Amino acid sequence: MSEIFSPPAAQLPTDKELVLKVIPMPADTNGNGDIFGGWVMAQVDLAGSVLPARYMQGRMATVAVNEFIFKQPVRVGDILSFFSSVTRVGRTSITVQVEVYAERFADQGRYVKVTEARLTYVAIDSEGRPRPVPPMPKAGG
């Protein structure tokens, strides 16, 4: 059996919030047997929307995937942890950074950073037009 490349273990971020955990299943694989990148992107979009949803107080839409980097393959049975932080608040939009870490099925307790992305969400009204983001609450207040 050939040895599989194993990247160095990663520390989970302490400056971001854990917003989602999910385990990919066999139905989520591509032709190589790894998890399909589009499936990972959909999960990142869901995870990225968690923090903006707290502040937008209504409908919102993903308007940009500013950056998306697949660092390592995701495998069936990995426990994926999605961490997010708000990096920018605009008049009608919020940009977030999402980092995804895999806890390999056969190597519990060891994390590998598999994906990172930056996405922008815009607050929209009932007609789908941009609307102002409500003011962010002040820290400690």
From TrEMBL:
Query: InterPro entries this protein is in?
Result: Cytosol_ACT, HOTDOG_ACOT, HotDog_dom_sf, Thioestr_dom
Q: Does the keyword Phosphoprotein apply?
A: no
What GO CC annotations are associated with the protein? cytosol
Q: What class of enzyme is it?
A: hydrolase
What Pfam families does the record tag this protein with?
4HBT
Which Enzyme Commission number(s) are listed? 3.1.2.-
One of its GO biological process terms is: fatty acid catabolic process
Database matches in PROSITE patterns? HOTDOG_ACOT
Where do the HotDog ACOT-type domain residues begin and end? 14-127
Q: Which SUPFAM superfamilies match?
A: Thioesterase/thiol ester dehydrase-isomerase
Lineage: superkingdom: Bacteria
- Keyword Acyltransferase among UniProt keywords: no
Instruction: Give the residue spans that cross the bilayer.
Output: none
Which is an annotated GO molecular function term of this record? long-chain fatty acyl-CoA hydrolase activity
What are the record keywords, sorted? Hydrolase
Instruction: Say which family it is in.
Output: Belongs to the acyl coenzyme A hydrolase family.
The name this protein goes by in its record: Acyl-CoA thioesterase YciA
User: Which species is this record about?
Assistant: Acidovorax soli
